[in-house]
Write a structure and sequence with these properties.
This protein has 228 residues and is of the alpha+beta class. Helices cover 56% and strands 8% of the residues. It contains 8 helices and 4 strands, in the order E-H-E-H-E-E-H-H-H-H-H-H. Strands 2-1-3-4 form a 4-stranded mixed beta sheet, covered by helices on one side. The chain is globular, with a radius of gyration of 17 Å. 36% of the residues are buried. The mean pLDDT is 95.
Length: 228
């Protein structure tokens, strides 16, 4: 069975979980929380050379990095593809998957650090100035770009792709920690979000992570439509 090392509320771990669910691939989540001292297993750097989650093992095969893992799962089970077939759509999906990394780096990661990791794990004060900078600069830039790309039912083509999964996974964790999607300002992005969280694979991933969400005291009212 596939083993996914990480935590379900992690943006990148969730992306891998959703792809596995979309492809009906059985998996087991092995909890790894790199920000918690002494939590990762002793061989963590062998599993993940960067020390980041997720990593995946499939028997004697190990691969880290969510993009590489999703590409491996696609080849492992080509049915229910999460990569568009037309060359231009395929390239655009990969580009937007990579842009989701910018969304994580510039928005979700710094906010998660300030709202959760610093005060609740490392006993450090929250830097409100950092939060204000992210909300005032990075959020309008990244959300604005994505709102402009979200003109159809999905970001690329007529079906959910790895681009949608990567972007929406970021927006889920962003809202878990209490921040607003600014629906009136970015209506097309909000519509895309609502559509993707209702996809069976995404909805099942969210259902499975709710125990963790509750244990961390995170916000989840924004998911009511997904579970309706």
């Amino acid at each position: 069975m596939l083993k996914i090392y990480g935590v379900p509320i992690s943006v990148h771990t969730r992306k891998v979980i959703v792809v596995a669910l979309a492809k009906d691939l059985p998996y087991e989540v092995v909890p790894v929380v790199p920000v918690v001292p002494d939590n990762p297993p002793p061989n963590w750097r062998q599993l993940s050379p960067t020390g980041k989650i997720p990593a995946l093992t499939d028997g004697d095969f190990t691969i880290a990095d969510s993009a590489a893992i999703c590409a491996y799962l696609e080849r492992l089970q080509p049915d229910q593809s999460v990569y568009p077939r037309p060359p231009r759509d395929y390239a655009l999906a990969l580009s937007l998957e990579q842009y989701a990394g910018t969304l994580f780096r510039d928005v979700v990661h710094p906010l998660f650090q300030e709202v959760f990791v610093h005060p609740k794990i490392r006993n450090l004060p929250t830097n409100q100035g950092q939060i204000d900078t992210v909300l005032g600069k990075a959020v309008p830039e990244t959300f604005g770009y994505l709102d402009g790309m979200a003109g159809g039912d999905f970001l690329v083509g007529g079906a959910m792709s790895v681009a949608d999964i990567a972007v929406v996974s970021n927006l889920i964790t962003y809202q878990y920690i209490g921040f607003d999607l600014y629906r009136a300002r970015f209506p097309r992005l909000a519509t895309l979000f609502d559509r993707v969280v209702r996809h069976p694979a995404m909805r099942e991933a969210l259902r499975r992570e709710q125990a963790v969400v509750d244990s961390m005291g995170l916000r989840k009212d924004f998911l009511s439509a997904a579970f309706a």
